[in-house]
Amino acid sequence: MVTELELLELCDRGDALTPPARALLLARAAGGAGDTPESLSLGARDRLILRLRSQLFGDTVEARDTCPHCQQGAAFELSGAGLLGAADPAPARVEIQYGRYRVTSRPPTAGDLLAAAEAGPAGARAQLLTAVVLTAYLGDDVVSADALPAEVVDALGRRLAEADPFAEVALSLTCESCGGTWEAVLDIAEFVWRELRDWGRRRLWEVHTLARAYGWREPDVLAMAPRRRQVYLEWVAND
Fold it and tell me: Is 88 helix (H, G, I), strand (E, B) or coil?
């Protein structure tokens, strides 16, 4: 189990990283992938992150969105276990036939996404496409990934999304205020990161409060059981 001090250090490291790099940081903290979470599909990476989240914060996921019909805030709850059981793991390969084009590809990995992000906005799409396309043919002729027409690339993207549905979790939401319905996408890695970042700031506030009141060091405060720490915080607040 990851300690509170280790989680705070993870928050420190993650603040300066890009979203794909932060997601890998969380996947490594979750464990279960050996030393190579970069090789996992995006869905497998996010499964690890969601399991880590369940260990830290429990099974219930509480989130908010804005209703596009009435612009009211909408709160909703999800079960982490339910999400994990809702989609099958991605296959190793997928194939599409589009006109005379035949393309064999694999789902993008966490490492692919990181490399694409490092390539910058102009080169990210080409970097990712080159990484995931295994073979491509126009009739009997081999073609390179960067020579595929946009419509073929779009068809491949849709097929890859279908093959790894946990990489982009789509939610069907209903507004309690107006009854409107809409689709929203839950970015698991970024959602868990924001939860962890907010948790870290609350813990640092607790350390600050108790250190100022009692002169305790950060490791001393974090070593306390949460319930005992809360008692001291209540006493400080009532002084």
Answer: coil
Buried b / exposed e across 64-77, counting CB within 10 Å, b at 16+?
ebebeeeeeebeee
Rg (CA), the chain: 22
Closest CA relative to residue 139, chosen from 81, 188, 97: 97
Instruction: For 154-179, give the DSSP string.
Output: HHHHHHHHHH-GGGSEEEEEE-TTT-
Is the four-CA dihedral 27, 40, 136, 160 of positive or negative sign? negative
pLDDT in tens, 153-170: 999 999 999 999 898 888
Please tell me the distance from the alpha carbon of residue 152 to that of residue 133, in angstroms, as a whole number: 12
Rounded CA gap, 203 and 208, in Å? 9
| Residue pLDDT, tens place only, 67-94 | 999 999 988 889 999 888 877 888 999 9
- Cα distances from 136 to residues 16, 30, 69, 237, in angstroms, run 38, 36, 43, 66
Residues 6+ apart with CB under 8 A from 7: 29, 56, 196, 199, 200
Could you tell me the pTM of the whole model? 0.88
User: Residue 104: enclosing H or E segment and its boundaries?
Assistant: strand 101-105
Q: At what angle do helices 226-238 and 188-214 cross, to 10 degrees?
A: 50
Measure the CA–CA gap between 137 and 77, rounded to whole angstroms.
45
Distance CA 195, CA 185 (A): 17
The CB density around residue 128, as the number of other CB atoms within 10 Å, is 19
